Amino acid sequence: MPEEEHWAVTSEYLGASFDFNDLVVGWASPLGTLSTTQQTTAYGDISFWNVSKDLQISMPQKSLSAKGDLTRVSNHLPSLQHASRVVMQMLYAYPRMMLRRQTFPPFIHPHWHQEHLPEALGNCMSISQLFASRTPETMPFLWKIIAAEQDRFRDKLSTFNPWEVHLCLQVMIIYMIMAMSESDADSKERTAILFETVELIGSRFLDLTGSYSSSEATEPSRTWEVWIFAESRRRMSCELVDAMTNPGHSDKTQKLENWETGSDNLAAMLKVVVEFVWASPLALRPKAMKQLVGQGPLTDFFPHRSTVKRKEIEQSPSPLPSPKRQERAASFISVSSDQDEHDGQEFMGPPLCKEQQDLVDLIMSGRNVFFTGSAGCGKSTVLKTAITQLRADGRNVAVTAPTGRAALNLDGVTLFSYMGWKPDDVKLSLDKLKCTMSGKPKQKTRKSLRETHVLVIDEISMVENNFLSQLEAVLCAIRNNQGNRSPPWGGLQLIVTGDFCQLPPVDPFQNCWHCGETQKEWQVSEEGMICSNGHGPWEIDKDKWAFRSPAWETAEFVYVNLKEIHRQSDRPFIKTLQKCRLGIPLVEHDFELLLDNESEVGNATHLVCKKIEAAKLNDEKLAEITEHTIKEYTCEDDVWFSPSYKGPKDGFLTYFESHRFNPKVQLKETQLVMLLVNLNLKKGLANGSQGVIVGWEKIDIDKLPVIEGPDAELKTEHVLLFTEQYKRRLSEPEKQVWPVVRFNNGYKKTVYPVCLVHSVNGQPGLQLFRTQIPLISGWAITIHKSQGMTLERVIVNLKSAFVVGQACVALSRATTLRGLHIQEGNRESLVKSLGRNPEVHDFLKGKFGEQLYADHAGSTN
């Protein structure tokens, strides 16, 4: 076929036009790596598609995608050394290919339309050149460079998106092969360190992509399903091109006659190829292709085309040609570059991993579930997903939490608001409380409680024993069906989550939940405290937890402990944090890890206990910036009721008091700030991302990002309203600006106003809006406000008055050890601040077994 011909087809299966050149390149390499500056191979030259040596690779005996297998492989380095000899021959050729810029090594995903090359790959190319021409004198310098690259990858691993992590993983494998090819005295140690880094990066990649499944060990066929499909696709593409360009060769057409698809996916892929063949009048369709289309079990996939249909395809406009690849500049930039492509506003959570999806499925089955896990395991992600799916399934879900901030983060209400209670109501006797709930003023509340199908309680660790007992008793009374005995919790499905190792209940047992008597009137007995009416006994400190309430056991929960940590990737750090959480005694290495680590915490956030401490430090730091003036942004709030809304219309403004967006935001250039929304997870811009204001962008309505997703039109309207109000307050155009932030991961981004919409408890016809610049001063925040955040740099002062569990919350905000500094602390203060709640640990052991503790005991090495 002439080289200048352009093969194109509009595929009914794909619903879009595509260039066959792009299609077959994708088949030849799943990463799309075989692209060149100039086309050097004509379609008729099938030698380009001879991939028998490079692509027809025997399957390993075991999957390398499972985290456990990565560890097992580390005990079999000789087998990797054997495989490395083949790769090393390619490695020596890489520098020449890189300098020509005509093709990339197979381990590189090019993103060839971008002008610059990512830093990780650029450095690897340079190091490869040094390695190819290495001498004994240059080797120490070479290994220092590679060690620096390792440190950089470890430090930034939590901020990389999946593509960037994948690049790091591929580069580290090349470095490991280099180390294994050397036979000097230090090679074994270097290889071990490199392999540990590869394991960390691989583990992080699997976390981000959600590809790891605990069933892989028992279902190896699932592990290789994608690989088999990809391999079959490559071979099919080669043989089809070969047969089409050599229609007279019976041996080539014979291969096509014997093709067995093996899966619906592969059969669908064959359909796309056949459409291409029909659409190309210049192609000579071999006899085998005609037989493939018209005979056998594939007839359903490939029906005969009419002449009219063929003409329609032949006359369809050709798609635009693929953009030609640009020559790259010689310099390199970081993967955290300033390239700021349009991404709109996205506030989406990460995809679920296997254990998270299993938990959502369990919740959807209708069982009562209590799930817990360490900070960073994705409890909130699971909860939000489950709530969305439950509501999509038609179930009325009430979302609650003990505090307003925790409730608002889930578009929920406090437990007091859900029950229609005032603070003094819980001081009443149970009989009086039931009587109050049966009165006319509580009619709408009773209706709401009876219509609830699922009750969600978040941050359960802060809910006390007595309150939970009251809650269950009143729900049973209100949901009692015609005088019959109500099932536990009134028949509600109960979804409860939180971490009892974190923040405890505040001021428990202020009153007896049976008779309402205050604690100061109780009597002390050998078994605990008893009220004057004989209710009890209670040991205040031991029995304060929700799981000690009789109402807890009546729920008959299914217990789930989420094990996979997504916030940190450094395994020794993760293990030490687990020890801190579970109260396992720290060993020497743990103390060294936390207290003597080399930290880089410039522009770090201080975690403090009280709001007044955070406000004081932020105000002081802001006042120190004297060379720049303050830019102030005032929020825009709105409450919307639909005409059909029949619920109460007062009291909702109190929700804004706990809103994550501040009513006023004061900003200065050079100020340390923190992001309050998941702005762009692919670029690492998430809730808690830290950065510095480096400038201002003049307001231009046309530059406001396009808002997508639910309530997009309403959010856009409120952002425009916020912008107009802001401009009216500042008559001088040069003062009408948005902040530009350089985040710690290297991205520079203009931060525009964001509108958060809260549908309180999913009530139809009721929505709360707050629009504001989603930034706060980042020098200090309270530990309570930091819950759910991922912080790159954090300072924790152990002299603060921590309650048990609060120190662990603070330490687990950090993504890496390098980004954590414990200020004014020693071993004694660390042990004291971490503390231990024996009742909590007995509860966890009883529900999840001794293995929960055995997995984390001992050394962190």
UniProtKB/TrEMBL annotation:
GO terms for biological process: DNA recombination; DNA repair; telomere maintenance. Keywords: ATP-binding, DNA damage, DNA recombination, DNA repair, Helicase, Hydrolase, Nucleotide-binding. Residues 365-507 form the AAA+ ATPase domain. Its cofactor is Mg(2+). This is ATP-dependent DNA helicase. Its EC number is 5.6.2.3. Belongs to the helicase family. GO terms for molecular function: 5'-3' DNA helicase activity; ATP binding; ATP hydrolysis activity. Residues 306-345 are annotated as: Disordered. It catalyses: ATP + H2O = ADP + phosphate + H(+). InterPro entries: AAA+_ATPase, DNA_helicase_pif1-like_DEAD, P-loop_NTPase, PIF1_helicase. Coiled coil: none annotated. It holds the Pfam family PIF1. It is an enzyme of class 5 (isomerase).
